[in-house]
């Protein structure tokens, strides 16, 4: 048996090597997507079986005899002992947002190879390690948050910086995901109607759940799902009816609608709109991810995108910047995401029944999210590259008119024709698919092709395209309303120290005022993205990637400090290596985003280019925005540099013996579970 | 095989009930020796949503 097991792991390791070799070495011919699936799945299995068990056994020394917070502090609310696989699903549903779907689609402009390798290697050695270490640390500290652990383990500065970084990231992420929705819905009556219809559906679900059938969440979610699928069909009818102009909105129109929505959703009672939409979007998200995985396995499309494109040199139309460092900040979620550290130190550690479960939940969930990112890469690269670039390139780069755009794109070596684009747009029920930056439409196209081949054929291409857009927009809007609300709470918390009534959650002027400030902040960046001649994604997505990876740097600093205190410098490399990589990548990217002399890359160069253009109010705004982006990027880098310097000072002291290296864990209490089960 | 599928389906349903807070509601009823009612659900969900939506959602 032992030999059989060993042989099985040898075979899986060979599968990983074979898959990685196939995707890395193939040139000049289309490879099948199953090679990516093989490389990813086998690498994850090997990483999980060997690397995570090494971390669990040698570094964390997980001990099932030690009572977890869920056992010691069980209260039926937050602290609840829960089945391992249920916590796994819960944790995965919480960490999987639009990031692992959109990031790989944008990074596909470099070709499928760099993004795929980063997703697999980054997740196995970086992202999953971060999630696992922070989950473990929080579990050993009664479920403390990342900010609290940073304060306790590193110092007061770390905790404060983590709080401010989170607030700033929230503002950037809400703007950037808002921009993804804007570019998907502008000029699309079908999409706008479908997404608009999800709001009355959510309101109906809210009233149903609160007054008609209290507590029947699965029932009301099934009803909501049926209604939103009907709304996709309704959208098709609207798009061909006389009502179509009513739902045909400009990019600015959709942006303003989202800003107004964000304000009301943040101020309305949570049970009315936010919670029912959240339940529905979580179920739809999990269902679509399973469908996509099955679709890829059944259809296993060939990848049309080459392994590497000419845009590794930094001249890419989707976003500017060389493969290093920009590929590694464009794909954050799916490889390494600092935001996960907030989830790993939130609800999850309070639900874990046994310490050993942390491995499957912390490390394993990240493997699954990384696999979602690989699937998004496959969906994007299965689309014809000419079509991919026509959809994702902003008008400022390839031109507004279809003929101009196809000429430019074909000139890059990715042939595409205006007739081909018109036919594709017609088959998915859109007027045009040109200049739809942001990743959502090209991902929806890839998913629609896979789903349509799996069932329904080309006749259902339009339905699947809009179903995919609805799926993406549904949970992006949930992030916008929940994020605005969270940002409002954080701001009220801070403002309450200045003037006490502002901190009261029940004082309406305070609620409205702080909601307006948060919505105004992300709304400003969203409008900035809409007005940006380079498509907005070019400036906002890198800002989001840099901030998210810098948050990961804070989390890995906390993890390194804890490992150092537990074992001395022996095992520091486990978190220090990914930390060093992230610091190199994010600081290089941040530096280039501020100081690069190329106007499409550097914010200051961009401002200088605008200054040389004829002066009017529009260019004045663009100049101000470029300086603002440079300042925001600089602030992120300074904040994280402060935490890093603080951490380095502490590590040096611990290694030299001049600083106390006491671990701040909760005291050991013997678990009663074994005797209970016996 | 059928046994495995049944167990798998039960596991999936249990996960959906957990994500949909239905299991948490049952635990709440047990802990408070209460019976399911509109008022009890509103009390439970208000408290749960207040805690949940004070935390950032992941990207």
Mean pLDDT of chain A: 92
Oligomeric grouping of the chains: heterodimer
Shape of chain A: globular
Helix and strand composition category of chain A: mainly alpha
Give the overall average pLDDT of chain B. Answer: 89
Low-confidence stretches of chain A: none
Low-confidence stretches of chain B: none
Describe this structure in words.
The complex is a heterodimer of chains A (678) and B (59). Chain A has helices spanning 2-25, 33-60, 69-72, 84-95, 99-107, 112-139, 146-154, 156-185, 189-212, 217-239, 251-267, 274-299, 323-330, 339-344, 357-381, 385-392, 395-398, 402-411, 418-427, 440-454, 461-498, 508-531, 537-567, 573-595, 603-611, 617-656, 673-677. With 678 residues, chain A is mostly helical. Chain A has a domain at 58-181 and 250-374 and 480-656. The longest helix of chain A is centred in the last third of the chain and has 40 residues, at 617-656. The two termini of chain A are 28 Å apart. Chain B is mostly helical and 59 residues long. Chain B is built from three helices and no strands.
Write a concise keyword list for the protein shown above:
heterodimer, A: 678 residues, mainly alpha, B: 59 residues, 3 helices, flat
